[in-house]
Fold this sequence. Notes:
The structure is a single chain. A hairpin with a 5-residue loop joins strand 8 and strand 9. It contains 18 helices and eleven strands. Helix 1 packs antiparallel against helix 5 and helix 2 (23-37) packs antiparallel against helix 3 (44-56). 48% of the residues lie in helices and 10% in strands. The protein folds into two domains: 3-89, no CATH class; 97-456, TIM Barrel (Alpha-Beta Barrel). The strands form two sheets. Strands 7-6-5-4-3-2-1-8-9 form a nine-stranded mixed β-sheet. A two-stranded antiparallel ribbon has the order 10-11. Mean pLDDT is 90; it is low at 446-456. The chain is an alpha/beta fold. GO terms for molecular function: catalytic activity; iron-sulfur cluster binding; metal ion binding. Keywords: Iron, Iron-sulfur, Metal-binding, S-adenosyl-L-methionine. It comes from bioreactor metagenome. Residues 103-311 form the Radical SAM core domain.
Amino acid sequence: MNFSDKAKAFGFDQAINYLEKDPATNIPKLAGLVDRFLPKEEFAEQRKAVMSAIEKKDNWYQLIMKMYELDAGTRVTFFRNFILNENFFGWPEQERNREKYGCNIPWAILLDPTSACNLKCTGCWAAEYGHKLNLSFEDIDSIIEQGKALGTYLYIYTGGEPLVRKQDLIRLCEKHADCMFLCFTNSTLIDEDFCKELLRVKNFIPSISLEGFEEANDSRRGEGVYSKVMHAMQLLKDHKLPFGVSVCYTSVNWNDVTSEEFYDKIIDMGALFVWFFHYMPVGQGAVSELMVTPEQRIELCKRIREFRRTKAIFAMDFQNDAQYVGGCIAGGRRYLHINAAGDVDPCVFIHYSNANIHNCTLLEALQSPIFMAYHDSQPFNENMLRPCPMLENPELLPEIVKKTGAHSTDPQSPESAEELCARTIDYAERWTPVAEQLWHDGTSCAGCSQCGGERG
């Protein structure tokens, strides 16, 4: 770390300590100082949004204040690792390496510590992977070391059920105390002892999978899982630990998971964020009918954006919010996925690769043919309501896979890109005219400009 970075880190720590003394009083003061002394072009939009939230005391301000109900050490570690390391320092380093190496460099790396899971949920692509694959502690440690050298300090565990590997994940938190770790989990393995471990390491945040209320959730995940999820949330809340919720919306549960009742429930339980994922018909036996209809997609988009404006929780809808991140973020543009066999996939839903982390470096994987095809082709559609080369543009993925010589990385039931995309052709045909009209009109959810629907 050079002198300039050390000075920034020192200033950051001083600011955090200042906020800890009296956040309600000192947040407006510090925001005003930052706004006054930073160059006008630096983080301009973000600063404007923060100042507006503080002045209005709106839902975003309430969310900031909820952070101060958390364990103090965990909160400070989050600020330092996520805001300072991953964004203030990491993002510029990622940009420099994108230019230096001529390829995508990820903001976050998703990886599967194991393919094992204690549940078998309907529509889960991981269920196709079997239960025998694992990345060793040394494998994951090497991935993180290589990632940090490129400027990446955010690592997100998927699976399988990552908490099958609790002890190794905690050891990785200890070794890489400068990183932030998130974990998609069914939460059934979260207990009192694990909460104590999270309080000790301070840099691990669970994102709990939830598919709606009890009937909808348990119909997909198994009887009794909903009550276990509620218990896990209560444990995390009681220990003042940060956590969020991960939702896969389908044609069956979309109404539940975008209802005000659902939002109020997870907020009351202590969730700070909710991430929405469009159901993808991945894997042999995937049910295409579970994909939402165009009408359902429009309505859920409207609801999510409205609640983003009014509820004290951070909501992200990865399929419908593509306009805010410039389209598809896979292929290392903002993230990539490494499965439990070591295959480096461009997307957690698209299992085709030329590279395996056991045979190449992370950088070499990012420069492999399929990753370079992503780099050279993004965005896949100028209409940001059609971002995906598999879901909304099903003609593209088979072309990419064929052109790059990539192979299926599903170890149980490999399928061709043509077979996968055959399940989305009808969906794309129905969604395309709707998306084109919305994009042409300048809105992304049926005229919902008041809740952030305007493209800009």
